[in-house]
């Protein structure tokens, strides 16, 4: 059994994969420690592990994984991956973005792919049908946009939107105007990327992941493939690739 760990800006996502590459357990931690690693290895027949992080990793977590695993991969820009990374500065590419591209390629091989990760930030990445990661863009996430409006103005309130809320095209009060401005703005952003990519390639698929993906899916009214575990699926694929 493999354990795959994706440490993001606000939480750590963990998934256990069986030999067929299927998720059998998943967990979310606000704080992930070496004690959590110890507990998981005691509860489940884990043999191999991989960890990816966009923040500084605790050495105790890395050391514990390395000690308990038959094979351990600390995922970084030097780790071999089953796609071709054409990014100009591989060392600065977010590990989660590259793992998501690997995961999307694994799920949808031989496809041009627009990969959207709606988390603290929203990333837009593109992978060609022959497995070349060509690059991507980073934009402020939903909470970041709401918070910046509050912090950088004198009178606008802090606003939050419900995940399943259908956002109006135009707000009729300040709260709805902010919600519509942020959520609709992101929806138009997504549609704009999809339209532009469609002008560049004959066919492609859009895959979306991240904690804020439902906000977009519920309002974009365009078919998107939603994969909640996309980064973890990519990490598992990378782990298996490095067993060869």
Secondary-structure blueprint:
Layout: E1 2-7, E2 12-17, E3 23-29, H1 34-43, E4 48-53, H2 59-68, E5 71-74, E6 84-85, H3 95-107, E7 113-118, E8 121-127, E9 132-140, H4 142-151, H5 174-200, E10 205-209, H6 213-220, E11 225-226, H7 230-241
Parallel strand pairs: 1-4, 4-5, 6-9, 7-10, 10-11
Antiparallel strand pairs: 1-2, 2-3, 7-8, 8-9
Helix pairs in contact: 1-2, 3-7, 4-5, 5-6
Summarize the structure.
The protein has 244 residues and is of the alpha/beta class. The chain has two domains: 74 residues, Nucleotidyltransferase, domain 5; 167 residues, 2-Layer Sandwich (Nucleotidyltransferase, domain 5). It contains seven helices and eleven strands.
Explain this structure to me?
The protein is of the alpha/beta class. The chain has two domains: 1-74, ATPase, nucleotide binding domain (Nucleotidyltransferase, domain 5, 2-Layer Sandwich); 78-244, ATPase, nucleotide binding domain (Nucleotidyltransferase, domain 5). It is built from seven helices and eleven strands. The chain has helices at residues 34-43, 59-68, 95-107, 142-151, 174-200, 213-220, 230-241; strands spanning 2-7, 12-17, 23-29, 48-53, 71-74, 84-85, 113-118, 121-127, 132-140, 205-209, 225-226. The chain has a six-stranded mixed sheet with strand order 6-9-8-7-10-11, sandwiched between helices. A hairpin with a 2-residue loop joins strand 7 (113-118) and strand 8 (121-127). Helix 1 runs parallel beside helix 2 (59-68), helix 4 (142-151) packs across helix 5 (174-200) and helix 5 (174-200) crosses helix 6. The relative contact order is 0.17. The mean pLDDT is 94.
């Amino acid at each position: 059994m493999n354990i795959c760990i994706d440490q993001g800006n606000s939480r750590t996502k963990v998934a256990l994969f069986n030999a067929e590459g299927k998720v059998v357990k998943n967990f979310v931690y606000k704080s992930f420690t070496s004690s959590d690693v110890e507990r998981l290895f005691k509860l489940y027949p884990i043999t191999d592990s991989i960890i990816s992080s966009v923040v500084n990793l605790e050495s105790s977590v890395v050391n514990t994984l390395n000690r308990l695993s038959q094979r351990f991969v600390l995922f970084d820009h030097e780790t071999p991956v089953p796609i071709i990374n054409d990014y100009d500065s591989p060392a600065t590419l977010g590990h989660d973005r590259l793992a998501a591209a690997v995961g999307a390629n694994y799920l949808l091989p031989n496809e041009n792919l627009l990969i959207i990760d709606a988390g603290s930030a929203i990333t837009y990445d593109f992978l060609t049908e022959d497995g070349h990661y060509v690059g991507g863009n980073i934009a402020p996430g939903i909470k970041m946009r709401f918070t910046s409006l509050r912090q950088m103005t004198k009178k606008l309130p802090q606003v939050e939107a419900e995940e399943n809320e259908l956002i109006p095209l135009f707000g009729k009060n300040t709260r709805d105007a902010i919600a519509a401005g942020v959520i609709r703005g992101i929806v138009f952003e997504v549609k704009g990327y999809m339209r532009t990519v469609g002008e560049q390639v004959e066919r492609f698929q859009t895959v979306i992941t991240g904690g804020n993906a439902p906000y977009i899916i519920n309002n974009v009214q365009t078919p998107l493939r939603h994969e909640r575990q996309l980064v973890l699926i990519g990490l598992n694929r990378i782990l298996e690739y490095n067993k060869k």
